[in-house]
Amino acid sequence: MMAIIPARPLPLVSLQQAGKCYGKGAGKVQALQEVTAGIWPGEFIALCGPSGSGKSTLLNLVGGIDYPTSGEVWLMGRNLRLLSDRETARLRAQSVGFVFQFFNLLPVLSVYDNIYYPLMLNGYSRKLADEQVMAMIERVGLINHYRRPPGELSGGQQQRVAIARALVKRPALVVADEPTGNLDMRTGEEIIELLLEMNAQSDTTLVISTHSPQLRASARRILEIEDGKLKDD
Ligand SMILES: Nc1ncnc2c1ncn2[C@@H]1O[C@H](COP(=O)(O)OP(=O)(O)OP(=O)(O)O)[C@@H](O)[C@H]1O
Question: Which of 21, 51, 57 to mutate to test the pocket of ligand 1 (most atoms within 8 A of CB)?
Fold first, then answer.
C-alpha cells in the first residue's frame, strides 16, 4: 500500500540565494549575500543581528518593499521578478502588513482612519470596514482614543495603532522592523505581549527584527544574520 505523506504547506516567502547590493563602484555596499530561507504559515520569527548586519534590508525583501539585486524572492507563491511594480503593490496590499520602529502613522488622520486606511486601499467602504476597524481598535486597547490624531498618543499607544493598521486586513504576513526599538523597556514588553497574542489568535505569520532579548526569547524560530549572511536558523 502506498503511504500517504501529508503535504507541507507552501512557504509564504521563499528567498533563493537572494542578495542585495546598494550603490555602485567605490560606494558599493553588499548588504545581503545569497540568503536562502523559507517562511511558513503561522510562524513567529525573530531576526537578530548586530547593527548594520542587514536586518532591515532582509525584511524589505521579505515584505516585497524592495527587490533583490541577485537571486529570487517568492512572495505568496509569486516570483517578484516576474511581477510589475503595480502587481507587487497589489500583492503587498492584500497580503503583508508592516510595523516600523518609528510607527510611520499618518499624522493628519485620526487613529480610526489610520487603521481604516489599508482596508480603503483594498476597496472597502467605511461602512463595510467599520466593524473590522472597531474590533481591531478594541483588541489593541485603544477604544478611548480612536478619534484622536496619533501625535497626541504615547509611543506605546502609537505602536498599538501601527500594529492594528498592519493586522486589520488580516494579512498572511506581518513584517515588523524593530517594533520596540523606540519604546522604553516596559512599553516594549507590552508590545511584544500584544504581538505574541496576535500571532497565537490568528494565522498571521510574524517576522520581527529585534535587539530585544525578550522578543528573542519569545520567538519560536530565530534567524541570525551577520555581515549580510544568515548564520543560524
Ligand atoms: N539605502 C541604502 N543605501 C546604501 N546603503 C544602505 C542602504 N540601506 C542600508 N544600507 C547599508 O546596508 C547595510 C545593512 O543595513 P541594514 O539597515 O539592513 O542593517 P540593520 O541590521 O537593519 O541595521 P540596524 O540594526 O542598525 O537597523 C549597512 O551597511 C547599511 O549602511
Answer: 57
